[in-house]
Amino acid sequence: MNLRNFGMASVMLAVVAASAPASAQKLDAGLFTTYSGGGTSISYVVCGSVAQSSGCYGSGSLSPFEQACAVLEGKAKQKNNVITRAIYVLDKCTSPFAPITLSVYTRTDTISDTFDSIQVSLTKQVSLGLNGGASSHCSMAANNDFVYAATDADTVAAGMNKSTFAVSQLGGFSPPANIVSITADERGYVSLHFDSGFYVYGPDASLQEDGGGAADMVGTRNAWLPK
Are 128 and 158 in contact (CB under 8 A)? Predict the structure, then answer.
């Protein structure tokens, strides 16, 4: 190999790499949202900073529910200065005989150099066809395309397609086993943990594995807590 030519090629590659544009930062990179409440309503507050200001820019509540028990945000999408994302609220209801529901909201942030104008509207309320009740405990996790939800009062979980809102019931051990938890990892794999086994679904909702015992997922943000 000609070392002189190799050195010149290395320099040229370095110049090209240095001139490549950095990925554009999301307009809401400095903003955060906190949630509180439960039961009949969920409250949210949006704070942080935009290009030329900082502080809290808006707040509101999501309601009414019978017994809101879990909240998830969807992946944000940016077009020009507008960012949209979904918010999913699981309602386990107060009666063990009323099917639990998943309320899907659309949040829109219109961001300028000095302000964030926030609007949240109900897009869809979906019956998951599962048992809940005031004394039940909720589980919910998601990947890019599906939301998985359940309570420990039922022996199956629900998987909802984010685009079509179609719902499938998943699991079903024999003999029947109740849901313990639902966990997901950063790649989009989701584990349904029953009290006598598990099912693992892939990012496209295809069944990947099932068996006895537990096989929970671990992510990079929130810790997995052994039962």
Answer: yes
113 and 50 belong to one structural domain? yes
**Backbone φ/ψ region at 12: left (φ over 0), alpha (ψ -120 to 50), beta:** alpha
111 and 142, same domain (yes or no):
no
| Residue 132 CA: distances (Å) to CA of 97, 138, 149, 152, 215 | 7, 8, 11, 8, 24
Write down the pLDDT at residue 13: 31
For 4, residues 6+ apart whose C-beta sits below 8 A from its C-beta are none
Q: Is residue 75 part of a domain?
A: yes
Question: 116-127 and 68-73: which strand pairing?
Answer: unpaired
Specify whether the CB–CB gap between 201 and 209 falls below 8 A: no
Its domain, for residue 97, covers 25-135
* Number of helices followed by number of strands (H, E) in the chain: 1, 16
Q: 158-200 pLDDT, tens per residue?
A: 999 999 999 999 998 989 999 999 999 999 999 999 999 999 9
- CA angle, corner 134, sides to 129 and 140, nearest 5? 55
pTM for the model stands at 0.88
CA–CA gap between residue 64 and residue 126 (Å, rounded): 14
pLDDT surpassing 50 at residue 207: yes
Structure tokens at 151: 């309570």
In a domain, 13, yes or no: no
Q: Is residue 203 part of a domain?
A: yes
Domain membership of residue 3 (yes or no) is: no
pLDDT by residue (tens digit) across 118-138?
Answer: 999 999 999 999 999 999 999
